[in-house]
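User: Let's play a game. I give you a shape written as tokens, and you guess the letters that built it. Ready? Here's round one.
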């Protein structure tokens, strides 16, 4: 059986310049803070970041923006991090704003291996620019393509040695969907438990899709 446990220092082995990274969380809540810091400390740059938002300047994925490590952001809003907006208007970083429901469905399609989905959201607005439209039964739809990443960084509440995960409260936002949509998924759990300790009905993300588990600080 593969040992998925690793120290936070080992996460740097998965980071490289120019990669696409998908991160769970909502305004920093549910974002894996230790993994985000490890990514910053690694010094990698030219990243494409896919996340609901860019959190705040000093929390979540925000420091990656502030320190110029990200070349492109795909998110649903950036208002809580003024540096993201500044870099966007200064043409220092590309920002693609996506309606929140569309964004999570793009990620879900990426994880499910689908070719995309049709949505009326954004028809007749700037969201439609450059996208294929279809008219079905007299109604116009946008074709939204799936999103995938090289690496997914997620946070969970409890995790066993196989990588089976539970989530707590608002941390169960983007994390379960993001976990499915990358070539490699790293999870930062709050608590590590023995395999078999989690009730099957409580498991949200199956261990089969988790590649590596960051050992919690109290267990190091």
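Assistant: Ready! My guess for every position:
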């Amino acid at each position: 059986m593969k040992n998925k446990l690793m120290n936070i220092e080992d996460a740097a082995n998965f980071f490289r310049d120019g990669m696409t990274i998908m991160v769970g969380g909502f305004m920093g809540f549910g974002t894996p803070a230790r993994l985000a810091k490890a990514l910053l400390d690694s010094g990698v740059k030219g990243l494409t970041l896919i996340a609901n938002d860019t959190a705040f300047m000093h929390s979540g994925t925000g420091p990656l923006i502030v320190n110029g490590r990200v070349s492109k952001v795909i998110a649903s809003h950036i208002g809580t991090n003024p540096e993201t907006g500044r870099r966007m208007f200064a043409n220092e970083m590309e920002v693609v704003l996506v309606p929140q429901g569309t964004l999570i469905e793009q990620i879900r399609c990426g994880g499910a291996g689908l070719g995309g989905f049709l949505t009326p959201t954004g028809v007749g607005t700037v969201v439609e620019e450059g996208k294929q439209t279809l008219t079905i039964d007299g109604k116009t739809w946008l074709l939204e393509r799936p999103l995938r990443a090289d690496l997914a960084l997620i946070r969970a509440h409890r995790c066993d040695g196989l990588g089976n995960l539970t989530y707590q409260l608002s941390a169960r936002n983007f994390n379960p969907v993001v976990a499915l949509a990358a070539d490699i998924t790293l999870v930062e759990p709050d608590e590590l438990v023995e395999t078999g300790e989690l009730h099957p009905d409580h498991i949200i993300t199956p261990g089969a899709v988790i590649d590596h588990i960051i050992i919690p600080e109290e267990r190091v």
